[in-house]
Amino acid sequence: MTGRVRRPVPDQAGPGQESVWDYPRPPRLERTTALLEVVLDGTVVGSTREGWRVLETSHPPTYYLPPAAFLDGALRPTAGASWCEWKGQASYFDLVHGDVVAPRAAWTYEQPSRGFEDLAGALAVMAAAVDECRVDGEVVTPQPGGFYGGWITSALAGPFKGIPGSHGW
User: Where do the record's region annotations for Disordered lie (predicted)?
Assistant: First the structure.
């Protein structure tokens, strides 16, 4: 079958795991009380138990923290924007601690699309751009591919969008 991308076979979810293949499309927004932490320059620069996660088929969750979760001065607006078909226009921030800068490591939707209004101003962080991100103390693995912002934990079964050959999923 030329030109068609085969849907991967989902990994078997183990006890206490969620399969990203059970997540919906279009994606769903849900609150989370998990402890979300962002570490830069050896310092926790963002921490909250009042976050959100976006769940989309084949993607690990993308976590969003409220602006108040970040240390003063840790967020610096930067140039550029992108468009998400579900959430709308994103703007970007550098994460900063001391002399360390993680360029365009965080993004937000100031005026998100319908269904994602609760995310207005909340920030997601690209885990690969900082020292580490944690969910309830577990250091996450960044979603593969360098484009998506999902955080992979042991509570997830894949395979995950972003791996080689997943462009058409």
Answer: 1-25
Distance CA 137, CA 133 (A): 9
What SS3 class is residue 127?
helix
**pLDDT value of position 5:** 61
The low-confidence residues of the chain, meaning pLDDT below 70, are: 1-5
Residue closest to 17 by CA, chosen among 159, 160, 136, 156:
156
The CA distance from 37 to 49, in Å, is: 9
**Domains in the chain, number:** 1
How would you write 30-66 as a 3-class SS string?
EEECCCEEEEECCEEEEEECCEEEEECCCCCCEEEEC
Q: How many CA atoms lie within 13 A of 137 on its CB side?
A: 0
In a domain? residue 129: yes
CA angle centred on 136, ends 131 and 137, rounded to 5°: 45
What does the pLDDT look like over 43-75, one tens digit per residue? 999 999 999 999 999 999 999 999 999 999 999
Residue 89 in any domain: the answer is no
For residue 112, what is the DSSP state? P
